Amino acid sequence: MDNLKHIIESLIFVSGNPLSMEQIKSVVPGADTKEIKSCLAELINEYEEREGGFYLRHVAGAYQFRSRPEYRDYVTKLVQATPLRLSKAALETLAVIAYKQPVIRADIEHIRGVDCGGIIRTLMEHKLVRVLGRKDIPGRPLIYSTTKRFLELFDLSSLRDLPTLKEIEAFQKEPIETDGIAEDSQPPAGLDLIKGEAHAGPHPDTEPENEQENERDHDNGEQKADNH
């Protein structure tokens, strides 16, 4: 298709959220997946070579133009965005959920050693954590996982892009740059807890999607999760 690359570029530019392959195909039904992927790869390379003020990024399984982190201060002044501020405890809890998901509250509290009910609710309010379902054990506690918003915030294409244990060591020496977290709230806070736990990494079937699914059970099921 003529000008397919430019069509895709314009769609991503006007989209308020990361644009998925399925969304692009729905707007340009005449293009096949191979053509679209080829155009996206070309666009990513072009913007990377350009080294301008923004670039094209594959994030949360979709595509989005993002301003470069080095210009964040100027962008923030213009749009007056308020960075998401998370406490150390919230970051620790989020790290545990990210690496152990799907996970129930009792397992999170076993790793952290403290009650996490209020923190989990806060993370859900920020749309970083969602209810995946209920575990088929006595009390049927809620199962938690991260969301697409989590991937977007930490500039991750998928859960497989989470740092390995070896990379966690480096995180303790160097700060992590993210587009949406204030500089005084750095993600390594919770990674120490993960190091001491044997784990196999994120479950391959827990990619965050359909974020609203099962969240309606949260309020009714929280008491059961509390008593677990």
CATH superfamily of the largest domain: Winged helix-like DNA-binding domain superfamily/Winged helix DNA-binding domain
What is the quaternary state of this protein? single chain
Q: Any idea of the CATH class of the largest domain?
A: Mainly Alpha
Structural class: mainly alpha
Number of helices: 11
Supply the key terms:
disordered C terminus; three-stranded antiparallel sheet; Arc Repressor Mutant, subunit A; mainly alpha; two-stranded antiparallel sheet; 228 residues
What does this structure look like?
With 228 residues, this protein is mainly alpha-helical. The chain has 2 domains: 4-79, Orthogonal Bundle (Arc Repressor Mutant, subunit A), CATH 1.10.10; 88-227, Winged helix-like DNA-binding domain superfamily/Winged helix DNA-binding domain (Arc Repressor Mutant, subunit A), CATH 1.10.10.10. The chain is 45% helix and 11% strand. The chain is built from 11 helices and 5 strands, in the order αααββααβααββαααα. The protein has helices spanning 4-14, 21-27, 33-50, 72-79, 88-100, 105-112, 117-125, 148-153, 165-171, 191-195, 217-227, and strands at 54-59, 62-67, 103-104, 129-134, 142-146. It has a 3-stranded antiparallel β-sheet with strand order 3-5-4. The chain has a two-stranded antiparallel sheet with strand order 1-2. A hairpin with a 2-residue loop joins strand 1 and strand 2 (62-67). Helix 1 crosses helix 3 (33-50) and helix 5 packs across helix 7 (117-125). It is globular, with a radius of gyration of 19 Å. Mean pLDDT is 80; it is low at 182-189 and 198-228.
